[in-house]
Amino acid sequence: MSTQLPLELPSSSPSNSVFINARCMLQTEEDLAVNLVVSCSNRKRYGTAPGLAAHELVGSDVRVRLQTWKKRLKTVKAEKYPAEDLYKGEHWSVVRDIQSNAMSRGWNVRLWICSAGYGLIRPSTRIHSYQVTFAPSTIRVARPRARDRL
Fold first, then answer.
1. pLDDT confidence of 15, banded at 50, 70, 90?
2. Looking at residue 97, what is its pLDDT?
3. Taking the CB of residue 140, how many other CB atoms lie within 10 A of it?
4. Cα separations (Å) of 54 from 58, 59, 65, 84, 140?
5. Which tens digit of pLDDT belongs to each residue from 21-47?
6. C-beta of residue 87 within 8 angstroms of C-beta of residue 125
7. Which 8-state DSSP code applies to residue 48?
């Protein structure tokens, strides 16, 4: 970060103040942080909780479908897992490697997960296993089915 700082000179100077350019190097933990945002994974370590699959949502009104989904997330009687333990696959092994490598080099890495079922969450957030994806080529995508629009 670069800023200008006023420098007072003795009154005998032609000008009684000048500005110098200074570079501020703040060495706080916050300044060395990297926010790493990754997508969730369609592959999960545990089975889908009852009622938490996008294809089970009916109707074409997106607001109603969202309200139904949010209610199911709150009321379903199923085990919750830390998000970082739920997702699996090659994508997640790379995510874990990036985070641990950066941390071993002294970087404060804040990992965030963009979850199709839960939104933006932290790895430690306890969530149910679910089947919703951002991928449009599958029936688990969070959008109305064609037959529901009829």
1. very low
2. 85
3. 19
4. 9, 11, 9, 21, 5
5. 344 444 455 556 778 898 898 889 999
6. no
7. P
Amino acid at 125: T
Single-letter code of the amino acid located at 77: K
4: β partners: 21
Nearest CA to 77 out of 57, 51, 46 is that of 51
How distant, in Å, are the alpha carbons of 12, 37, 47, 76 from that of 122? 59, 10, 21, 21
- Would you call 141 exposed, middle or buried from its count of C-beta atoms within 10 A (0-12, 13-18, 19+)? middle
Q: Are 36 and 112 in contact (CB under 8 A)?
A: yes
Phi, psi of 23 (to 5 degrees): -105, 120
Q: Is the pLDDT of residue 57 over 80?
A: yes
Kindly report the average pLDDT of the chain as a whole number. Answer: 75
Prediction pTM value:
0.67
| 126, β-bridge pairs | 82
